[in-house]
Design a protein that fits this description.
By secondary structure, this protein is of the alpha/beta class. It contains 15 helices and 21 strands. It folds into three domains: 2-60, Ubiquitin-like (UB roll); 66-226, Threonyl-tRNA Synthetase, Chain A, domain 2 (2-Layer Sandwich); 228-544, P-loop containing nucleotide triphosphate hydrolases (Rossmann fold). It has helices at residues 19-26, 64-86, 116-132, 143-152, 156-161, 225-240, 246-254, 258-283, 299-311, 350-361, 435-450, 455-472, 491-504, 513-523, 541-544; strands at 2-6, 9-13, 34-39, 42-45, 54-60, 93-100, 103-109, 137-142, 169-175, 178-180, 197-201, 204-208, 288-292, 316-321, 366-372, 377-385, 391-396, 414-420, 426-428, 431-432, 482-485. Strand 19 (426-428) and strand 20 form a beta hairpin. It starts with a strand and ends in a 7-residue tail after the last helix.
């Protein structure tokens, strides 16, 4: 017998009792389904069993870790359904590529064109698997046995990934004879995945999953064509360079080809920036280039590189930060916790910004402010501007695409650019890298370097940052004239050296420990690269330091 303490109350259970059965006793106390447990502070899957005295608590689908387990399990059920519908020997390669809203886009690589009917068959098979409530089993294999298993099942990407694995064992999941590897925790059976939908989208499958806030509700899917096209283009770049997964990247690093690959990737980004500059010039009458995007997208470096490209067309760009129009600190709105809300539009003096921009458009001379973040006041230091025929203002800020920010300026004078770090590299075909992970690591490294902030503090603030993005940036992204993906296919191998020491500084028992441990495990997949060969104008330099721009 083992003594299990839950909410301060101890109770005995026979050794071998599953955590799923214990969770079932307490499920009625939770509004959402229990997905995982914490055993003495360690995350455990529900099919694990009691084997010692411990304290136990529960994680539901409303917890980030629980929601991710739901998504992974749904993806495994989808892949198993595809396997069953197509039949052995005819199973297509499937790559889980990226998220579009609450949907996960899967590229089904088959000779025949994917049809609505085929997607309906796959969805029906998924529902059958869910109704059967089949167990998801986990087994630990010695590394070479795991590689042989993946080779047998023609999962070459996984076989390559684990060629670089340092640990001796690999956890492999099995669902009714279908084997796969997943980076992270899983639910104990198919019956847990009650809510999902499938749709044919842009020649592939979109797996719709409920959001974390309402885990039993699938929102109406709103197509985001510009975002999809940008993501698809970035995936195409990776395939063109022969780097579709982390295993491919590690091959290039270990075979000595990383320097050429860095130069090719940087050239691709520079070509894209040049295309955007040409589109601005060809538009004519553009006086305001508005750049917006979520945290750690590389907006500052991008604005400088775009300005250089504009100068090659004879334009005279002038950078302006919307942050310089912050209201004085005491006028800043506060959030529900009483903290300053610097993310909302009301934190910007929109009226004064429009007055200044309208005056500049008329040819008047305007003194532009500089916000002093130490005093919390807007200051003026003689920065006078007057727009000539070739002058263009390059304005950067999270609210740049919101029509309310530039309400007084004529539309023909504005060119709007949405920038984000949209990760196109996968761990393997079935394990995508969330774009938020890449941005979080970028910000962590930069904040430690420029602000002396700990990794724990960056992780603690991240949910608030993400809420601001959801409210004030993402709703306006499809209104952009151009989208720019700032991700560098090699950057995580560079960030690894900077981020790992910061993450190891987070101690067990601190709330951010689980996220730090997850990110450390994630970075283990990468072979590291020396940053010496990263060009000084690279977006990567905005985060690791050594940029030729004032970032």
């Amino acid at each position: 017998m083992a003594v299990i303490t839950i909410d301060g109350i101890a109770k005995e259970y026979p050794n071998g009792t599953t955590y799923e059965s214990i969770a079932g006793e307490y499920q009625k106390e939770y509004d959402n389904m229990v997905a995982l447990v914490l055993e003495n502070g360690k995350i455990r899957e529900l099919f694990k069993t009691v084997h010692k005295d411990c304290e136990l608590s529960f994680l539901t689908l409303k917890d980030n870790i629980g929601h991710k387990a739901y998504v992974r399990t749904a993806i495994m059920i989808l892949l198993k359904a595809i396997h069953d519908v197509y039949g052995k020997g005819n199973v297509p390669k499937v790559k889980v590529e990226f998220a579009i809203g609450q949907g996960y886009y899967c590229d089904v690589r088959t000779e025949e064109k994917l049809t609505e009917q085929k997607v309906k068959q796959i969805a029906q098979r998924m529902r059958e698997l869910v109704n059967q409530d089949l167990p998801v089993k986990k087994k630990s294999y010695p590394i070479e046995e795991a590689r042989a298993l993946f080779r047998e099942h023609k999962m070459d990407d996984k076989e390559k990934l684990f060629r670089y694995r340092r640990s001796s064992f690999v956890n492999v999941y099995c669902l009714d004879g279908y084997y796969d590897y997943y980076y992270g925790f899983m639910l104990p059976s198919t019956g847990y995945v009650k809510y999902f939908d499938l749709m044919l989208y842009e020649g592939g499958i979109l797996l719709l999953i409920p959001g974390m806030d309402e885990p039993d509700k699938i929102d109406y899917f709103e197509p985001r064509e510009k975002l999809f096209h940008t993501l698809k283009t970035s995936s195409g770049w990776g395939e063109m360079m022969g780097i579709d997964s982390v295993g491919d990247l590690n091959d290039v690093i270990c075979e000595g080809g990383i320097n050429d690959m860095i130069l090719v990737q940087e050239a691709l980004l520079e070509r894209r920036i040049g295309e955007i500059a040409k589109n601005i010039v060809d538009r004519g009458n553009v006086k305001f280039v508005l750049i917006a995007g979520p945290s750690s997208s590389g907006k500052t470096t991008f604005s400088h590189r775009l300005s250089i490209q504009l100068r090659t067309y004879g334009k005279i760009p002038h950078p302006i930060a919307l942050d310089d129009y912050f209201v004085d600190r005491e006028l800043t709105p506060r959030d529900e916790n009483g903290d300053y809300n610097f993310e909302c539009l009301e934190a910007i003096d929109v009226k004064k910004f429009n007055e200044d921009m309208a005056s500049l458009l008329k040819g008047e001379t305007v003194e532009l402010p500089r916000f002093n973040f130490k005093t919390g006041k807007r200051e003026y230091h003689g920065n006078f501007k007057q727009l000539g025929p070739e002058d263009i203002l390059v304005i950067e800020g999270i609210h740049g695409l919101n029509p309310k920010t530039t309400y007084s300026l004529p539309d023909e004078s504005k060119f709007k650019i949405y920038i984000s770090a949209l990760t196109s590299l996968n761990i393997d075909e079935h394990n995508r890298i969330p774009t938020t992970d890449g941005r979080l690591l970028r910000r962590m490294v930069r904040d430690a370097r420029t602000r002396g902030a700990s990794a724990r503090r960056t992780i603690e603030m991240w949910p608030s940052v993400r809420r601001g993005e959801e409210n004030y940036i993402f709703p306006f992204q499809e209104g952009a004239d151009e989208m720019f993906n700032s991700v560098l296919i090699y950057e995580l191998a560079v960030l690894k050296q900077y981020a790992e020491p910061l993450l190891f500084g987070i101690k067990q028992g601190e709330p951010e420990y689980y996220e730090a441990k997850r990110l450390l495990k994630f970075l283990e997949y990468f072979q590291g690269i020396d940053s010496a060969n990263v060009p000084s104008n690279s977006i990567c330099r905005e985060f690791i330091g050594g940029s030729c721009f004032p970032v």
